[in-house]
Amino acid sequence: MTYRAQPTLPYFPAVIKNIASPSLEVKKLVYIYLLHHAEQAPEEALLSINTIQKALSDQNPQVRALALRVMSGIRVPVIHQIVSIGIKRGCADMSPYVRKAAAFAIPKCYRLEPSTLPQLLEYLSKLLGDKQYYVAGAAVSAFLEVCPDRIDLIHPHYRSLIRKLVDMDEWGQLATL
């Protein structure tokens, strides 16, 4: 990544220091920067994982969802177990916004490490039965990416998904149909 024809990777340590900033806007910018440079500087990216994990316990559901989204977006195979634990916490979160982020994190974790499939199927099954239509729509999308042949996961939630179909966004509707 470059800015005005100058590489931005040399600024990685200075930018990552701001990951613990209380400002949501600064956090978002640091997370975007981290996602762009994590593959080129995996050791430095791993140093930020602890701070991102702490953000999973933040009071603000937006911060929790953002942290889960960023953690699952870092494509460093070493962290697959941490991402899986984050998804588990996200599935049990009180906020539907965080549960939706957990659903979208499932395919990313699967791509990172396919051996986590049994755990991910358990989380996915729980999210498919979620009462919120936008969480269920995200879960169906994740289902289609991870295990589209496992109809047994859809079966217990089929009628509920059909009732929620009207309220889902267009992507959730397409995936469900």
UniProtKB/TrEMBL annotation:
Belongs to the adaptor complexes large subunit family. Residues 11-174 form the Clathrin/coatomer adaptor adaptin-like N-terminal domain. It comes from the Eukaryota. This is AP-3 complex subunit beta. SUPFAM superfamilies: ARM repeat (SSF48371). Pfam families: Adaptin_N. It is found in: Endomembrane system. Keywords: Membrane, Protein transport, Transport. The gene is APL6_3.
